[in-house]
Amino acid sequence: MKKVIIALGFLVIGSCGTSQSSKQSVVTKTFDIKEYAERITAKDLKSYLYVFAGDDFEGRDTGEEGQKKAAEYLRTQYRKMNIPAPEGVEGYFQTIPKSFFRGDIKASENVLAFIEGSEKPEEVLVLSAHYDHVGINSKGQIYNGADDDGSGTVSLLEIAEAFQKMKDEGHGPKRSILFLHVTGEEKGLYGSKYYTENPVFPLANTIANLNIDMVGRIDKDHEGEEKENYIYLIGSDRLSTELHEISEKANAEYTNLNLDYTYNAANDPNRFYFRSDHYNFAKNGVPIIFYFNGVHEDYHKPTDTPDKIEYELMAKRAQLVFYTAYELLNREQRIVVDGEVEK
Predict the structure, then answer these.
(1) 3-state DSSP of the chain
(2) Burial degree of 40 (CB within 10 A; 0-12, 13-18, 19+)
(3) pLDDT in tens, the chain (343 residues)
(4) Whether 127 contacts 164, CB under 8 Å
């Protein structure tokens, strides 16, 4: 079990007769990072997801009423957690005008929340998930998108709450964290494209992007009790070997998931590296990790519902993101980019 020790120094003056001497005394205050990670629970994830992937949000189609309700829900949760929007972002929303989209898509908005770092606030880690889905079909069936990407969205909320609790108790991160809920992913990665073209924080100061897109289910290749303790990681070694090493170490020390790199292969015919919001960061030279459970029989169907989510496993996957983020935020030097950008 890893404990983090903070040293608080103060001067103690002692006297004896006419002589004085001084010595440095150190008081240590410890905290266990695991206690904060374990605040990310299956119970809380389930509570969030049954609302977020419920019928009231009408499939969260970009620009439509259900997506607006989902955005408002996210804003409300961050206000409850006392996590502010970044300076200059009014009401947590980064508005994307209709003119930015191709086709008949209405204006939409990314949702942004921010925890400022204590020592290197100008350096920012972006944690992202898309909160849109595909709406309602011609038969009136709602596509709830519980896994895609309700799972990533509510994982972000739980991770944010854990980091805010740390900050409230005096253990805030050295670097800053941007929680970025992007819209328009299903239409063509529009929300992340808009953010990277109009960044609230310079991309040169963005140390990495950890993107969570579908982390609540088990695919056919991992069915069976002995194989289901897994997560696919994509892109962790493509732009920064340090990022890959940090991810591997965090998993080995804390979560012990099977890290499956099948879809990270350069010749992967699915090309998942290019198909979620992390790619808009990667093509701009920002190191990324894409967390993914693989596709399943309910992918992009009305049957992708909250009752089919593996909540305990989902919590463990979100905890891996938390541990990896913690190391990136608090290490002495930001990670080095030593890979080549793929476009």
Answers:
(1) CCEEEEEEEEEEEEEECCEEEEEEEEEEEEEEHHHHHCCCCHHHHHHHHHHHCCHHHHHHECCCHHHHHHHHHHHHHHHHCCCCCCCCCHHHEEEECHHHCCCCCCCEEEEEEEECCCCEEEEEEEEEEECCECCECCCCCECCCHHHHHHHHHHHHHHHHHHHHHHHCCCCCCEEEEEEEECCHHHHCHHHHHHHHCCCCCHHHEEEEEEECCCCCCCHHHCCCCCCCEEEEECCCCCCHHHHHHHHHHHHHHHCCEEECHHHCCCCCCCHHHCCCHHHHHCCCCCEEEEECCCCCCCCCCCCCHHHCCHHHHHHHHHHHHHHHHHHHHCCCCCCCCCCCCC
(2) buried
(3) 444 444 433 333 343 443 444 344 434 458 899 999 999 999 999 999 999 999 999 999 999 999 999 999 999 999 999 999 999 999 999 999 999 999 999 999 999 999 999 999 999 999 999 999 999 999 999 999 999 999 999 999 999 999 999 999 999 999 999 999 999 999 999 999 999 999 999 999 999 999 999 999 999 999 999 999 999 999 999 999 999 999 999 999 999 999 999 999 999 999 999 999 999 999 999 999 999 999 999 999 999 999 999 999 999 999 999 999 999 999 999 999 999 999 8
(4) no
The strand pairing partners of 30, in sequence order, are: 5
Question: Model's pTM, two decimal places?
Answer: 0.92
Helix 311-330 with 241-250: angle, nearest 10 deg: 130
Q: Which residues of 57-78 are buried (b: 16+ CB within 10 A; e: fewer)?
A: bbbbbbbbebbbebbbbbbebb
Rounded Cα distance between 261 and 268, Å, is: 10
| Residues whose CB is less than 8 angstroms from the CB of residue 35 and which lie 6 or more positions away in sequence, other chains included | none
Q: How many residues appear in the chain?
A: 343
Pairing of strands 108-115, 93-96: antiparallel
Amino acid making up residue 102:
R
